[in-house]
Specification:
Layout lengths: L4 E6 L6 E6 L5 E6 L3 E6 L7 E4 L5 E6 L6 E5 L3 E5 L7 E5 L5 E6 L5 E6 L4 E5 L5 E5 L6 E6 L5 E6 L3 E6 L4 E7 L5 E6 L5 E6 L4 E5 L4 E6 L6 E6 L5 E6 L4 E5 L4 E7 L5 E6 L5 E6 L4 E5 L8 H5 L23 E7 L15 E4 L9 E4 L12 E2 L2 E2 L22 H9 L5 H45 L1
Parallel strand pairs: 25-30, 29-30
Antiparallel strand pairs: 1-28, 2-3, 3-4, 4-5, 6-7, 7-8, 8-9, 10-11, 11-12, 12-13, 14-15, 15-16, 16-17, 18-19, 19-20, 20-21, 22-23, 23-24, 24-25, 26-27, 27-28, 29-31, 32-33
Amino acid sequence: MEDPKLEKQFKSHRNTVTSLSFAPNTKQLASGGLDSCLYLWPFKSQVRAYRFVGHNDAVHSVCFSPSGHLIASGSKDKKVRLWIPSVKGESTVFKAHTAAVRCVDFSNDGQSLLSSSEDKTIKIWTVHRQKFQFSLNQHSNWVRCAKFSPDGRLIISCSDDKTVKIWDRNTNECMHTFYEPHGFLNDVAFHPSGTCIGGGCTDASVKIWDIRTRKLIQHYANHVASVNSVAFHPNGNFLLSASSDATLKVFDLLEGRLIYTLHGHQGPAMSVAFSKQGDYFASGGQDQQVLVWKTNFDIISSPIESSTNKYANSSDYSTRSRISSGNLQQNKTHIATLQEKPQLETSDERQARKIDVFSEKSIMRMFNDDDQLKITNIGPAYENGIARSNSASAGLINSARMPSRNTRSTYDIEQNNTQQSYPPQLANTLDHIVQQLDILTKTVSILETRLTMTESKIQEINNEEHNRK
C-alpha cells in the first residue's frame, strides 16, 4: 500500500472553503466557500480556474450532477443555483427555503435534487424545471446534511436536534431515527453498498451504522475536535474525515483501524470528497485552501515493490490480517514532516501514519491515539434471502467481527477454541511468548523512531550547509 501524495494546491477563495465535489470525469473540481463564490478548478495546470458569482451570501454546499453537466449549490441566501460548468458560468436560481440552505445532493439518476436547510426541512425537486416534489419535516432543528442512497430509494439526514433519520423516498416517511446523546452530526454519507451510513460528529467521533440492523457498528475516537466532513472511498473499504483539529484521517474499514493522519491545513479542515474512481481526494479548510491528493492507499503493492521503498511497511498490505474484538490498544504514531512529497517513516503495522505537509523544518513528535473501535461486517450479508446482522452477539458490537483480508471471522475462531483444550503449561508458555513479542515490537518501534529522527536531523544539517554555499 502506497502513501497518499499531495498533488495540487488551489488558493483563490477569500474565506473558508465549505464544500467540494469532483466532476464525474475527474477533470474538474468544484468548491464553495463563505466568500459566496463557487470555483471550478481544472486539473490541467495551463487552464485557469473559473469563478462563479451569483449567491449573495456564503455557499454551504456544492454538488456535481452524475452527468457532469450541472453543478448545484446551496447558500445562506436561502437559494439553490444550478450552474453550467463552462466559461460563461450560466445558472438558474430558485428560492428553495425560508432559511439558509446547508446541503444539496443529486440522485444517482440525475433526475432529482434534494436540499436541506436551517428551516428544519428537507425538500426534493425535479432537476428539470426545478419543480417541487415533497418535503420532509420531522426534524426539530437545523438539518445540516441530507443525501440520497445509491439506489435512490432512501434519504439520510442529520440535524442539530441530535438525530440521524432514514427516510423512505416513496412513502415520505421516517423509517428509523438514530439518537446522538453527546453531540450532533455535521455530515453524513451513504456507504457505496447502501447498507451502512457514516457520520462525523461534534463530539470528535466518526461513527458508522448498519441500516439493516439499525445498530452502531463502528466508532472511531481519533480526532480531538469536531468532525466536519466524511467521505467513503468508492470501493467501500476506506473512510476519510476532516476535523477542526486541522487533520484529515483515513480509516481502513475492513481492518477497523486508523491508517493515516494527514496534516495539510493550517486551521480547521471543513470538507473532504473522493473522485468517482477514488484515485484522488480533495480537502478544503478554514485556511482558504483546496488541496488535491493522490489516494495511493487503495492500491495494493507487490512485495517486491514494497521492499524497495525504505519508507514502506516490511510486509505487503494484502497479507495483513486483522481479527478485532473490542477496543484496540492505543496507537503510538509519528508525524513525518514533509516539504514536497509525503514520505513516511516506518512504523508498526498497528500504527497510524501521520503526514505533515507544509512545515519547513523536520520535527519528530510522538502521538498517542485512542482507537475506540466497535466492529462488525460492513458489507451486505443475506441468509435465505433475508438480510441479517453479522454480529456474533446481540450486544453492542464488542464481540462482532469485520471481515479482514484472508481471515476467518472471530465467531468461527471462538467456536474452534471452545472445541480445543490446551494444557495450562502450554497456555502459560504461549502467553509468555506473546508478551515477549509485544516487548520486541515496542523496542523496534522506538528504534525506528530514533532512526527517523536522526535521518531528519542529518537532512536538516545538509540543507543548512547547502544554503550557506
